[in-house]
Write a structure and sequence with these properties.
With 211 residues, the chain is an all-alpha fold. The chain folds into 2 domains: 108 residues, no CATH class; 75 residues, Orthogonal Bundle (Arc Repressor Mutant, subunit A). It is 64% helix and 0% strand. It contains 10 helices and no strands. Helix 2 runs antiparallel to helix 3, helix 3 packs parallel to helix 5 and helix 6 runs antiparallel to helix 10.
């Protein structure tokens, strides 16, 4: 009986380029945007399926799932998210990265399903404790996008936002670092989050259901 990895290899062999060739994947997506032909659609779907399957198969091989069926469920969930929200990708050159974010967030939601998480789409979300991880700025290249977006904030918000989102500092630590009361730091965080949510260049990375 074929193993999941051998079945995936059979599918990957049908790709005209390597799964890791994100430039080729982005070019295929660009053709799909411009042409929307069955051939273009098939190629984008094939690459997406291979990437998503490989991502969760690698997680499974590392013992990341409680049940063997969880990997299949998350693969299906992530692939559907991509298909349902593909039209929202504004920059075709970021398609492969966007798919990566969908996979990573789907996995993070699985690992944190019993915890509260905070999204830039939820300005007044719950305040996380020291034991609860902040999911936003820890997701691969999204961290770089966050760093760039924080640099575009007003000067007085940059350091508190950097400490909170990129270094996972607690409000008390940020208060001491910037010399402002904790209440002020909380206000700065909410103001920064509101502006980050409205940053079009950041939204290229996090549009759709991934957060």
């Amino acid at each position: 009986m074929p193993t999941p990895s051998s079945e995936l290899r059979t599918v990957i062999d049908r790709l005209p380029f390597a799964v890791d060739d994100t430039d080729a994947a982005n070019e295929a997506f660009q053709r799909w945007v411009e042409e929307d032909t069955p051939e273009a659609t098939r190629l984008v779907d094939l690459w997406t399926y291979c990437y998503v399957c490989r991502y969760f198969l690698s997680k499974s091989a590392r013992g990341a799932f409680e049940n063997a069926s969880d990997a299949d469920e998350l693969t299906t969930r992530a692939y559907r998210k991509v298909q349902e929200n593909r039209d929202s990708v504004r920059n075709p050159d970021r398609y492969a990265n966007w798919v990566s974010v969908v996979c990573k967030n789907t996995f993070l939601n699985y690992t944190r399903r019993d915890q509260f998480s905070e999204s830039i789409q939820d300005e007044d979300g719950p305040t996380l404790t020291a034991q609860e991880e902040r999911p936003i700025a820890e997701i691969g290249f999204v961290r770089e996008a966050f760093a760039d977006a924080i640099e575009r904030l007003p000067g007085y918000l940059q350091e508190p936002a950097r400490l909170y989102f990129l270094e996972n500092r607690e409000f008390e630590e940020i208060s001491e670092a910037v010399g402002k009361p904790v209440a002020t730091v909380r206000t700065y965080k909410h103001k920064a989050m509101k502006q980050l949510r409205a940053d079009d260049r950041l939204q290229e990375y996090v549009d759709g259901p991934v957060l």
